[in-house]
Design goal:
With 283 residues, this protein is of the alpha/beta class. It contains 11 helices and 13 strands. 42% of the residues lie in helices and 24% in strands.
Length: 283
């Protein structure tokens, strides 16, 4: 039976221990800041990125991994006869999955590479990656692993709070809504990604809106506390506040594994300072 290896992109939220333990291959995206290009997680850390983003004259540009890098990675992973399952950030956010598909063709490995649009990113993408990697280590076949990923995907939730709309508007991520929202004073928005599409779920003013957001998400976690194995809290630059939020989740059910970490440059670029997301799924 051929071995199954798991591949993902650097927008994923995983710990270094998880990557090593489950032998996960992470293909990095690229970031350009004022004309200088960095490789995500290789020559720029997440905290360094936020600092450089705040000092930059222009909004940083993020781009999918070069197809050549992808092709070489796929050749390396499949050279021993292994099959590869690649799980990537939502197609609505990046062309990474399309680059992976082209790379698999260039490497003549399309029949051995199975690509999954996570329809999300960050820790939500990480949940799918971890499930696949654990299944692979347990000897499950491709069909069983893909079925498990789909099951998680159907129950996943991403709630993101954006407190400064400047980057979202500059990057064009809000589309036709941006003009209307930009004219409103002190507006914050809640973003969600049902079916892999980025939408503005709610909008409101100031800290009161963020507090109501927290309470609403915590109430949902409370209602499903025995069916939620893990929660991810990802942020741009508010570590202390996020640890406090994590403690509230742990108080609801101490068995829930809560991971609090800085988000990736691709998310921080568009979400901007003060943004954070709460991500989880139900079993």
């Amino acid at each position: 039976m051929s071995k199954i290896k798991i591949m993902t992109d650097s927008s994923v939220q995983l710990t270094s221990e998880e990557i090593e333990k489950y032998n996960i291959t992470v293909v990095p995206l690229s970031i350009s800041i004022d004309g200088k290009t960095y490789v995500d997680g290789v020559d720029i850390s997440r905290s360094d990125f936020v600092r450089k983003m705040n000092e930059a004259k222009e909004l940083p540009q993020t781009s999918q991994p070069p197809i050549g890098r992808f092709a070489e990675t796929i050749k390396d992973l499949t050279k021993d006869g292994s099959e590869v399952i690649g799980i990537f950030l939502a197609k609505a956010l990046s062309g990474t999955i399309d680059a992976a598909r082209q790379a698999a063709e260039i490497a003549n490995q399309s029949d051995h590479v199975y690509l999954v649009d996570s329809e999300l990113t960050d820790r939500a993408e990480g949940f799918q990656v971890l499930a696949a990697a654990k299944d692979a280590q347990e000897g499950k076949n491709v069909e069983e692993i893909l079925e498990h990923i789909n099951k998680i995907k159907k129950s996943q939730k991403l709630h993101m709070m954006v407190v400064d709309l400047k980057n979202l508007i500059k990057g064009g991520r809000l589309g036709a809504l941006s003009g209307k929202i930009a004219t409103l004073l002190n507006i914050r928005i809640e973003l969600q990604m049902p079916g892999g599409e980025l939408i503005v779920a709610k909008k409101g003013r100031g800290k009161k809106f963020s507090k109501a957001f927290d309470e609403r998400v915590l109430a949902d976690i409370e209602a499903n506390k025995d069916r939620i194995p893990e929660v991810g809290i990802s942020y741009v630059d508010t570590p202390e506040a996020m640890e406090e939020l994590a403690d509230k989740i742990r108080a609801i059910n101490p068995k829930i594994n809560v991971l609090v970490q800085e988000t990736s440059p691709i998310i921080a670029t568009h979400a901007g300072n003060g943004a954070y997301a709460i991500l989880y799924y139900t079993e």
